[in-house]
Amino acid sequence: MQTPSRFNGKKYLNTIATSVSPPNGYSRMLQRWLMGKEIRTPQQQLGPFAVDVAALAEPVPASALRVTWLGHSSVLLEIDGKRFLTDPVWSRASPVGFAGPKRFFAMPLPLTSLPALDGIIISHDHYDHLDEAAVRAFARTNVPFYCPLGVGAHLRRWGVAASRVTELDWWQHIEVGGTHTLVATPARHFSGRGMLDRDSTLWASWVVLGPQHRAFFGGDSGPFEAGFREIGAAYGPFDLTMLEVGAYDENWADIHMGPDHAAAAHQALRGRLLLPLHWGTFNLAFHSWTEPIERLQTIAAAQHLALLLPQPGQRVDARSGAANSRWWHEQSTL
Q1: E-assigned strand segments in the chain
Q2: Using N-to-C axis directions, what is the helix angle for 258-268 and 225-235, rounded to 10°?
Q3: Which strands sit side by side in the sheet containing 65-71, from one edge to the other?
Q4: What is d(CA 133, CA 17) in angstroms, rounded to the nearest whole number?
Q5: Which part of the chain is the Metallo-beta-lactamase domain (predicted)?
Q6: Which CATH number is 41-332 given?
Q7: Each residue's pLDDT tens digit in the chain (334 positions)?
């Protein structure tokens, strides 16, 4: 049964019990952060990577299914004549510009070189998914935003016209241009940008339906196989799923999937091709920076899953099936 989100008057709630706090306490987690021996960041500067801006300037073909992964959860999705941008983050994953997790590589596409967009899709308001500086730049354009309930307040405060902001609850949908449909769907996560606004806005995954293709953008979510199965039954099978695989750990096992649960989610969604997100861009967890993708490849080989593994900034045709650039291997051996 497709149920809307749960709101208790102050906070949004997950549909199943979900813990955000580390079970062994924050002091133990801090000690591990300071003393851990994992190679959490690349040994050298990655890149440079660059998008083919001239190619992106061309109109999107009516039968296209192309993706350009810009790092973390930022993806240019070209689907059946329209182009959407997910969770655009050009800055540090931090409330301040001078500290906090910084990108392993420069954004492959300058903001000023972005092609025309049919919409920006936001999954939730965490700093590694919602970049104030980028939003303020987009506010000077006419691009529409699609976001979960409550997130629109951030966008309007940063200058986006209210008429260009659409907020949806889980299972609500909106038509775009008479040809496409966006559906906000459930996820298992949390929200907040400060100490006092935890869970005051909703988090969501998104379904993108075109005339010929179907794509799923997971945002952030913990293990949620029953929920993904429900989404897959309602809107699948998906030609492309875009799911988080990085920044996982036992300390936050309820709110991030990691490679194993991402593979299970992909299958529950009835996905054909999996583009892994949320890895290789920021130091946000205790694992080595290449562990998520290496683990996912092992799982995919055992379970016969098709992966799409482009280099940052590389525009790839998802209709052609699995592809592996091995960019992280090439970069780590420079």
Answers
A1: 6-7, 12-13, 65-71, 74-79, 82-86, 119-121, 145-148, 165-168, 173-176, 180-185, 205-209, 214-217, 238-244, 271-277, 306-309, 315-317, 323-324
A2: 30
A3: 165-168, 145-148, 119-121, 82-86, 74-79, 65-71, 315-317
A4: 34
A5: 83-279
A6: 3.60.15.10
A7: 788 899 999 999 999 999 998 777 777 877 877 778 899 999 998 999 999 999 999 999 999 999 999 999 999 999 999 999 999 999 999 999 889 999 999 999 999 999 999 999 999 999 999 999 999 999 999 999 999 999 999 999 999 999 999 999 999 999 999 999 999 999 999 999 998 999 999 999 999 999 999 999 999 999 999 999 999 999 999 999 999 999 999 999 999 999 999 999 999 999 999 999 999 999 999 999 999 999 999 999 999 999 999 999 999 999 999 999 999 987 765 4
The whole-angstrom separation of Cα 68 and Cα 118 is 15
End-to-end CA distance of the chain: 51
Q: Which two tokens stand for residue 151?
A: 């997130």
Domain ranges (residues) in the chain = 41-332
Q: Which residue bears the tokens 């593994």?
A: 309
Two tokens, residue 188: 């298992």
CA dist 275 → 80, 124, 202, 308, 318 (Å): 18, 19, 24, 5, 9
**How many contiguous H segments (helices) and E segments (strands) does the chain have?**
8, 17
Instruction: Give me 129's structure tokens.
Output: 């998914």
Query: What H or E segment, with its residue span, contains residue 265?
Result: helix 258-268
- pTM score over 0.90: yes
Alpha helices (H) in 142-207, listed in sequence order = 152-157
Burial class (CB in 10 A: 0-12, 13-18, 19+), 163: exposed
